[in-house]
User: What shape does this take?
Amino acid sequence: MSKAHAIRAHYEPRIAAGGPSHEIVNWGSAESQRARFEVLLAYVPLGGRSLLDVGCGTGDLPALLEQRGLEVAYTGVDILERMVELCRRRLPGGGSCGRTSSPRGAIAASPPSRSTWSSARGR
Assistant: This one.
């Protein structure tokens, strides 16, 4: 089984089941997910910069950035089209989410040189 197939096999049933976004992307709880994002925001000055989020999932990080009022040129990519759809629904005002055909393709689709910071998350 390819890596891409294994990723799809793991996440697609979680997406189909619905539920809270932190459960879809395998975070232990909404609090633990938020705590990790808070650490990122505490140590990485994102305001006025760009961010490439490899493995953007359902768009929880850009939602938090918007909630905080941070002006960030956000680009999220994910291997799963359904994750990208969920992310796009959460970003009506700015940023972009796109699909990549493979984990390595995410970098090729949006080169890091176009982003001030890059974030890769997942298992």
